[in-house]
Amino acid sequence: MKKIANKIIGFIIDKVKRNRFVQSLFESPINVNSYPRLGEFIDSFGNRFILYKNLRNKIKPGWESMYNSSSILIVNNEIITKRANEGRIAVEKILPIIQTFLLGLQDKKVLEIGCNLGAASYALAELGAKDVLGSEFSGYKVDSLGTGEAEVINQELKLNREKIAELFKKKSRVNFIDDDICNSKLPSSNFDLICSWDVLEHLQNPESAFQNIARLLSDGGIAINEYNPFFSLNGGHSLCTLDFLWGHARINNNDFYKYLTEFRPKEVEKAFSFFKDGLNRMTINDLIKYSNNAGLEILSLFMFTKEQHVRMLTNDILNQCQNLYHNLQAVDLVNPRIIVVHRKRKI
So what's the pLDDT on residue 257? Predict the structure, then answer.
């Protein structure tokens, strides 16, 4: 098993070594003292936080595009091509895992959760999957992002998926559905592989989601989910990354709202909605617990620890996070990328 794990990790690193995320593994820790001071925030417990100008840009580059976006509509071929390539890369990263635990994609029925524009779904079909169903819950975008009505969102998704489909072979093997994995209505024991990218951290009820994943998997099927945990340094995503390290994980809902009103009044409505409804607080301990309760065996748990985040972590930061989230560990704060591989436990 150790040789298999090393092979998988080696393949992933080789495939994405030009990716910004992997390059960032070799960066130095962020020196907050090199940034101009923006001000000070005092939370309801009397904790004082020094704020640093442009720190948000460092932690989450390009955050403005998410904040300014009110629609998912894609308008140019360059972005279409970029999304298609990202879908192929995402699938190629997990191919060794699929080969190891499922003996490949050939003749397999696949469900992609949170497929968005469908690039990864098309890539799965192109690489051999017999039948691919991409699911997307439009209600999530309406509730947590305020991006319009579900009908409008679904229409935009349909148009963009048709554009992306032209860049893939075997596109006829792919279908899409509006479905919430936390309350899925899909038939049981129907998929050999269930996968997702950057979805688990957004689920409103991850425990229920794992129960549905177990129900939907066929005998011998596996699930592969890659995600960006809430408690990691950039886990606040674009809307909720604050101006001090791990800020989103160090203050509660009321203080987060207070912070927005004091320092980001134009972002209050959208950012606070996303903080409450768009990001769950699943720790690694929770992940293990939810998996066990759902009858899912964890075959592998790949945690991509960032050494510079370990060096940036302080006792105060850890204590403040643990005061709010009692089962949180230091490891939750220093892993911005996790891949968990499940198999339905035999009864």
Answer: 98
Can you give the CATH number for the domain in which 257 is found?
A: 3.40.50.150
Longest dimension (CA), the chain: 59
Domain tally, the chain: 1
Calpha distance 132→129 (Å, rounded): 7
| Phi (first) and psi of residue 134, to 5 degrees | -100, 125
**CA angle (108, 112, 116) in 5-degree steps:** 145
pLDDT band at 65 (very low <50, low <70, confident <90, very high): confident
* pLDDT tens-digit series, residues 89-101: 999 999 999 999 9
Phi-psi region of 295 (alpha: psi -120 to 50; beta: other; left: phi over 0): left
* Domain with 145 in it: 2-344
pTM score above 0.85: yes
Instruction: Give the integer Cα–Cα distance in Å for 73 and 222.
Output: 33
> In DSSP terms, which residues pair with 49 in a beta bridge?
41
The C-alpha R_g of the chain, in whole angstroms, comes to: 20
Q: How far apart are the first and last CA of the chain?
A: 23
